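Dear Dr. H.,

I hope your travels went smoothly. While you were away I took the liberty of generating a structure for the chain from your last submission, since the lab meeting agenda had it listed for discussion. I wanted you to have the full record in hand beforehand rather than looking at slides cold. The sequence, exactly as received, is reproduced here:
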Amino acid sequence: MFFWGPGAAGSWLRHFRPRSGTVGGVRLGTFNVMHGRSLTDGEVQAERFLDAVAGLDADVLGLQEVDRDQPRSGQLDLAALAAQAMGAGDGDWCFVPTVFGTPGESWRPADIARPGGQHIAGERPAITGSHEDDAGEPAYGIALISRLPVQEWRVIELGRAPVRSPIALPGGGPGSRARLILLDDEPRIAIAAILDSADGPLTVVTTHLSFVPGWNAWQLRRLTRRLAEMDGPVVILGDLNLPGALPGLLTRWHRLAASPTYPAPAPQVQLDHVLARGPIGEVRAVHCQRTPVSDHRALLVDLIPSTPHTP
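The corresponding predicted structure, in token form, is as follows:
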């Protein structure tokens, strides 16, 4: 059984106080954390990761390239650390593995039981599968963390590209050069949470799409088709591996943030996106924030309720 839940990171974690922003406003964010590794020294440190997430001050945050029990990241549970940093309540955060093992080395798909391609979690953010002996096995996937109460969780299958593609991996420390390797694509999924916001139910989705050209576009279209079944406003947060305005053009959803996010030291291209469908309020500010970890910058959008129309 897989159980990714609160408390797994240990009682030594610091507690962070939730932000006190504009009443009715919300900050949404997406952050590819590159398993918490720093470009400065190539290391993964729990305190540094906590500070990085807390510094984003997000109310809802989608995370990609998230490690759990990986030797390369000190067996840390990065999703649990992020939830602690944000002050997320029990049941209001969820980590879903896409693979067991280590990407780029040896791994196998995480065979999560999701009947009909969609799994609805129970009272706690738990994903249950058929491998009862997988507890403690290195895992890698995505996470969604919310300070707003979560009414319902869903996981949506998006498939995987059947071909290898060249990928540039950043160096492991100061002065080290990036290396180009051929990688098999891992399974791709999306996590959706129906949130209880001040303006009613809001569905927020996070995903990390394929690095294989063409397949990422197909996965995004597949995701938006599935989300057509959801009522009310919907927001997608994620590393879509698609540049600039392309995700908005493919989906006809609103692009809430236009800012290059990669590579972190001097961003040249926007791979990380916030897309919206329906009445989600007005964008008050956009932040493309560099942190002490990752080769991506975090992308944050501050929303405020739309001004009511006065006749």
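Two observations you may find useful: The chain has one domain: 26-304. The CA atoms of residues 60 and 146 lie 4 Å apart.

With kind regards,
E. W.
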